[in-house]
Design brief:
312 residues; alpha/beta; three-stranded antiparallel β-sheet; 10 helices; 9 strands; 9% strand
């Protein structure tokens, strides 16, 4: 269950529970350099030891994968791409691309426009939250920083390091076997739910969906980073809540967060007056779109939904 945006004091629970126009000046930097942007690792092991701690290695790779997803999502997103249209309205393209630019861009790692902390060892109250309701992958502090030195944390829960859904990294796209294995693990499966269907193909009367609900670690961190006020105020500058927080929300508490993000898009399309948040305020809309756009590009699949009431 992804959405668990529960304010607990200053902490917004963003947990993946077990379960525009182009922004100006976007530089074509390599995604892996994003790992230089955040302030520090906490509780992730000694990086100078004879062997890199497994937690440090996994967290670092997740950050690189997060940037990889954002980099390609920025390049691929357009108003006519299904990987974007499944999650956002046309006029949200600028917001989405600005978000992907902010996440992937790394012009000057010595003067990063935002900093944050990756904490691999949650304790006390955060540890309790990690274990709540079956377990969370990560928890993010969405409070407004007090000053430039107040770097907020993304806590990686034990499940992030041990869960089946977060055991995979993005594949090396230059390794054909590795890429094919990743693409094939996103199985096609029937999912006949309430007439809301997404993603290609039909065989007879059976509709098949691309299942992307098994998260890669980079997907988890991309979701989480949109909750950080320091990041979200870049792409949602006018979106602060009554406490001044710009971070995204978690719309639902379900076991299929990517599907729920698509469902939110259909709901607001069908009834703009619904009391639902705009997709641009939903964390999983960004992560879902980034993952789907990445899969569209590298798995060479064009996901064309059938007529379903929201498709023209």
């Amino acid at each position: 269950m992804l959405p668990h945006f529960l304010p607990v004091g200053a902490i917004a629970l963003s947990s993946l529970l077990q379960y525009a126009e182009a922004a100006p000046g976007f530089p074509p930097k390599t995604a892996s350099s994003l790992s230089k942007r955040f302030n520090t690792f906490v509780g992730c092991g000694d990086p100078e030891g004879p062997e890199v701690d497994p937690k440090r290695s996994k967290a670092g790779q997740a950050l690189a994968d997060m940037a990889n997803l954002a980099l390609h999502a920025y390049d691929e997103a357009s108003a006519d791409k299904y990987g974007f249209k499944h999650y956002f309205r046309d006029y949200e393209l600028h917001t989405f691309k600005t978000a992907m630019s902010a996440i992937a861009e790394n012009n000057d790692p010595t003067n990063a426009p935002y900093n944050f902390i990756i904490n691999c060892d949650p304790t006390d109250h955060i540890a309790e939250l990690c274990d709540k309701d079956g377990g969370s992958y990560a928890i993010t502090d969405a409070a407004v920083p007090a000053d430039d030195n107040d770097h907020k944390s993304i806590w990686l829960c034990p499940l992030f390091f041990t869960g089946d859904d977060t055991k995979n990294n993005l594949p090396n796209t230059e390794n054909a076997d590795e890429l094919q294995a990743w693409c094939n693990q996103k199985d096609y499966t029937s999912f006949p739910t309430a007439g809301i269907y997404f993603l290609s193909l039909t065989q007879g009367q059976t509709l098949y969906l691309l299942v992307v609900d098994k998260f890669d670690t980079g997907h988890v961190l991309l979701h989480e980073i949109t909750h950080l006020d320091a990041v979200a105020k870049i792409f949602l500058p006018d979106g602060a809540d009554e406490e001044g927080r710009h971070g995204t929300l978690d719309w639902t508490q379900g076991s299929r967060p990517i599907y729920d993000a698509r469902r939110l898009k259909v709901r607001v399309d069908n009834d703009p007056n619904r009391p639902d948040p705009a997709p641009s305020f939903n964390a999983e809309s960004y992560a879902g779109a980034a993952t789907e756009l990445w899969a569209q590009k590298f798995c060479q699949k064009e996901f064309i939904p059938p007529k379903n009431g929201y498709e023209p």
